[in-house]
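Q: Could you write out the predicted structure for this multi-component system? I'm mainly interested in how the pieces pack against one another.
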Amino acid sequence: MSNPTITEEYRAHFTDLQPDEPEALRLFRKAGLKTFGKLGLPASSREEWRYNKLTALRDRAFRPANGSPAEPSPEQIADLLLPEMETQRLVFIDGRHSPTLSRIGELPPGATVTNLTGHIAALGELPAGLNSLADHEHDPFTNLNSMFLGDGLYLDLAAGVAIEQPIHLLFLSSGDEYLASPRNLINAAEGSRAVIIESYASLNDSAAFTNVITEVDCAPGADIVHYKLQRENGATQHIGQSLVRQAENSRYKSVEIVFGGDMTRRFLKLDLLGENAECEVNALYLARGEQVHDLRTRITHAVPNCATRELYKGIVDEKAHGIFDGLVYVARDAQVTDAHQTNRNLLLSQDARVNSMPRLEIYADDVKCSHGSTTGQLEEEQIFYLRSRGLAPDAARALLTFAFAGEIIDTIELAPLRQRLSSELLRRLPQGELIEETL
Amino acid sequence: MLTIKNLHAGVEGKEILKGINLEIKAGEVHAIMGPNGSGKSTLSGVLAGNEAFTITEGEVTYLGENLLPLSAEMRALEGIFLAFQYPIEIPGVSNAHFLRAALNARRRHRDEPELDAFDFQELAKKKMELFELNPALMDRSLNVGFSGGEKKRNEGFQMALLEPTLAVMDETDSGLDIDALKIVAQGVNSLRSPERAALVITHYQRLLDYIVPDFVHVLADGRIVKSGGKELALELEKSGYAWINRGTPGEEGV
């Protein structure tokens, strides 16, 4: 059982909130409160929390932001707004919508792009799909999110609708021990298409807790590309879940880039429920200092003829800790499944640590599945080859490390975003400046 | 240019080179031939500064300076180039990025202005033609997915681009068909000049038909057991290496 005082503190924070909102949402929060009160924080003895002890979350309760947020000017956050790209943009501060920083342009008929609580207020009831994929029965963080539900994207695409400009969700944290509880809901009807950039950053160096849930429902033939960028400051606790359901012939692609946070746990649950659905899920985590980057995936092949491509790569330096736990589950009926899962980790220091748990569970007999995991250091013979051409050892190491990560960055289909993350990666790598001119 | 005196070296406590003596002057091409396990690759590794090898005795001077304390990269900057027997594959590092970094490191070292991407591309294109390499390989990951012949030609191309003072070629002919061999040899010959020298290490005489050496040395069990002119290579081709224990090629009984 977890520390009951923390649960009580969250309960007290809840009582302090008196939002003026539809009854349906109030009941939704209360249900969250009730279940969270029962569950508390997860016991660290449980298998899925064995390597990530959530120390900072057990210390104290973070409080939800109250009153109106102190908004930065657009100039202050100019770079975070991805000025090089045309986007549909929603900005949130400590989980609350900022209309002044958001900018939604013209949309095709049949597309709704708005903030979730605004949509609920207009609707007077909860939208279909809310909590339909998240585990609101057993998962404490889902319930913590529900009780303090902040804001996030509400995206609804009618059949055949495509939004060409990427939808950029920028979640900013103003620190100050705030708990932000963003919630995104994406309903993509038959044959619809969108690209989403879900991005997290901090406005300063102070501690915060971000606890986010994103639910994505892909109807037959829908095509969703989903980039997730975690660049919060090194004092932030981040728990993020993406829950995805795919019907037949749909495609879902996810690229997660985790640079920031003190502790970051990203969970991706993906259910392939219709034939010929495909998913491609990639991630890059770069952990330095004493950062913990914990990435978990649960991919279920429930029906025949679906495909999974999963490539998660970690660079772990100094005293940081990387965790990968991935399961591909192939049900008995899921014949002709084509699933490949790979986790590769690069250790850059003696004190860096990695736990890698790739898993396949296969109950069908006609499948093409593989999984693999490697954790190691840079190869001496590669370093020597580069040195023998005149590159300094540090530059050789930086170049090889950059190349290791580049494999994930290269899977970003939006060229400006790819270039941006490539240069950012270089800035964040040890000695990255040594090779900047060559790239 | 290069003087090796009584060089002893090995790996993991096992002595492989047991007293090598060799003198290479500017403008000369020397060939080192020898059977497998004679120490050919150890010698090239030691000259290039591979720290996997330990030097236990002897000295090496290059351009009048003690070579042995220099790091691998410093040797490269000072003009030593090793063409690898097995070029290393490096996924994610493009040939172009890598070579521009290498070339500019060398140019900085010589106080020459660096080349921008455009000038580099022009130069690289010219040098690639020399080795009949597809220009598309420039944008591919270093040696990844290259055929055996492409890898060796890529080594030759790198050498032509970096214009070394002393080129050490470690079994460049292995894995090459005769056409590729001619291409590589042509490229190497185009680099020959009175200021430069080359050490060509090979198991077979074949390469030396195209890169004609001034001197041939036979390496056996970590020592140079015989030296001579280019005709020595032809004798070796006829009689193989089995004579080594007796002292002279051609005296091998049947």
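A: Regarding packing and overall arrangement: Chain B touches chain A at residues 48-52, 71-73, 75-77, 81-82, 84, 87-88, 90-93, 97-102, 104-106, 109, 141, 158, 162 (CB under 8 Å).
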